[in-house]
Design brief:
This protein has 513 residues and is an alpha+beta fold. The chain contains 17 helices and 23 strands. It binds one RNA strand of 75 nucleotides through helix 1, strand 4, strand 5, strand 10 and strand 13.
RNA sequence: GCGGGAGUAGCUCAGGGGUAGAGCAUUAGCUUCCCAAGCUAAGGGUCGUGGGUUCGAUUCCCAUCUCCCGCUCCA
């Protein structure tokens, strides 16, 4: 799909009530979007599919809905407080953005490399008699390098601790760091981006009242690990699943709903015996890919991507990537998180986060394999996978184009439309109404009598409705209707009593498992 | 933050120093027994915001805001 088609997809999403820009009447809010009437249906259906495949289909996976607000120490333990405060600096010439701390660390390493080079020369020169410590203090050049390094390193650590951005800028200048791309030292001010949002608990001023909005749902699972394990009498391995909002103050939120500041995750933490992590990592990798494929998603648009740089909590990580209109991007992450989180919480809280294993007769902190999928990304993946412009014959048998969302029927927002062939015929409309009133208790239906029948079909195609039931004159005689299938345009004449069964079979989640 | 693009009707866009247009959509009606764009009528816009030039600005100038795309990170 080209960029133009991506634009069309964004327009279509708005025009047909899937996604609206947030606060549009006030010119919008960057990186925040609202889900419209069809959007919320699609989103809920994705959640249902995930929840059923995780919780309902696994005896050893249970659900949880933890609060968004958590004790501040949670984020200290998780590493987010330290890892999510990036000082950033831009080079004005190359317009590249860098992490100031990374630049400085590299700069400091270069100084030490210079000193090491001198030492290496000296070692060769003096051979066995070489006294390295003595040389470090007595050789002026080496001593200067070390002194400069230690001095700047000290200032660097202090500045990072205090969040002193101007000081970081000064250090960059003193280190004479040049942009590797442009070669210039044309730097902007160093700015800090705290990737966690925070709010105030009560009216207490100062640090104590500072409360973060969770940047991931996982920590709610970890801190409830023992509560859940005990109340559900689970034995290892077992999992805890959660769907919920998370918040990240992204530097730049872009690409529609792909990267949002407020987003929703579907996470499952699988608690396992240490040493079995690779086995379960592979199991979930495979299981999750099957989950994606069973929706009928084009296999060419899905792939694994191994992480080169592992996050601070992981010892193995793979992404499930989807080919979005703007390229292959991360849709879901599967991480082997070791015992990092539970151990951290155990340490910081002073509470045991251990599992007593009756088989081995010992207690230990479980290891964790996580599957974490972005719900909004899944939504976008389903939209872009479904969005199709195609040529179909019109009333005269000529070519005409239609835009159709080819969702898996289980995900489609509206399941069935009931369409009387003519509006100005009371018998037809009354019968349509009656069918609608009967079906509406089973699944989401729409009754529509406006405009020509062809146009109504196209309207339903545009929101991805898998079935259209049309009431015509023959219906009045023998209680049959036509049922039209969205993708093939094929119509069958069936008895009214069969509609519910056919639609239910088509939209069933059962076929996905 | 820097660079680029763009803000005119619900959507897609045209226009142009003299007071705003099209197609689709919406509403009402007509027509039509199965795959969009048949007929009639109606509603809907302080042309992103503020300032300047001008008799007059949606149009020209300046500023500003917002959105979109690219640059680090992640679900």
């Amino acid at each position: 799909m080209s960029t133009d088609l991506f634009k069309d997809l964004v327009s279509h999403s708005k025009e047909y009530g899937f996604i609206f820009p947030s606060s549009e009447v006030y010119d919008g809010l960057s990186g925040v979007y609202d889900y419209g009437p069809y959007g919320v249906e699609l989103k809920n259906n994705i959640k249902t599919y995930w929840w059923r495949s995780m919780v309902q289909n696994h005896e050893n996976i249970v659900g949880l809905d933890a609060a968004i607000m958590m004790h501040p120490k949670t984020w200290k333990a998780s590493g987010h407080v330290d890892a999510f405060n990036d000082p950033l600096v831009d080079n004005k010439t190359s317009q590249k953005r860098y992490r100031a701390d990374v630049l400085i660390e590299e700069g400091l390493e270069k100084i030490m490399a210079k000193a090491e080079k001198e030492l290496e020369k000296a070692r060769k020169r003096f051979g066995d008699e070489f006294d390295e410590n003595k040389y470090k203090t007595e050789n002026q050049r080496v001593a200067d390098y070390i002194k400069q390094h230690d001095h700047l390193h000290g200032r660097f650590v202090t500045a990072m601790g205090k969040g002193d951005m101007p000081e970081l800028k000064l250090i960059i200048e003193e280190l004479e760091i040049a942009d590797p791309v442009s070669g210039t030292r044309d730097w902007t001010e160093v700015r800090q981006f705290n990737l966690m949002f925070y709010t105030q608990l009560g009216n207490i001023a100062g640090e104590e009242g500072k409360l973060y909005l969770r940047p991931e749902t996982a920590q709610g699972i970890f801190v409830n690990f023992l509560n859940v394990q005990k109340t559900t009498r689970q034995k290892l391995p077992f999992g805890i699943a959660q769907i919920g909002k998370a918040f990240r103050n992204e530097i730049i939120a872009r690409q529609f709903i792909f990267r949002m500041r407020e987003f929703e995750q579907m996470e499952m933490q699988y608690f396992i015996q240490p040493g079995t992590e690779m086995q379960w990592y592979n199991y979930w990798k495979e299981t999750r890919m099957k989950w994606h494929l069973s929706l009928g998603t084009d296999p060419a648009k899905l792939r694994f991507h191994d992480h080169d740089n592992l996050a601070h909590y992981a010892n193995a990580a793979v992404d499930v990537q989807f080919e979005f209109p703007f390229g292959f991007k991360e849709l879901e992450g599967i991480h082997s998180r070791t015992d990092f989180d539970l151990s951290s919480h155990q340490e910081l809280s002073g509470k045991k986060m251990q599992y007593f294993d009756p088989e081995t007769n010992e207690s230990y902190v479980p290891y964790v394999v996580e599957t974490s999928i972005g719900l909004d990304r899944m939504f976008l993946a389903m939209m872009s996978n479904a969005y199709t412009e195609e040529t179909v014959p019109d009333a005269d048998g000529k070519d005409s184009t239609r835009i159709v969302l080819k969702f898996h029927p289980a995900l489609a927002p509206v399941k069935c439309a009931i369409l009387p062939l003519l509006k100005n015929n009371d018998d037809l409309t009354a019968m349509g109404r009656k069918i609608f009133d009967d079906l509406k208790f089973s699944f989401l239906c729409q009754y529509d009598e406006k405009d020509a029948i062809g146009r109504r079909y196209r309207r339903q195609d545009a929101i991805g409705t898998p079935f259209c039931v049309t009431v015509d004159h023959q219906s009045l005689e023998d209680q049959t209707v036509t049922i039209r299938e969205r993708d093939t345009l094929k119509q069958d004449r069936i008895h009214i009593s069969k509609i519910q069964g056919i639609v239910e079979e088509g939209i069933s989640f059962r076929s996905l498992f």
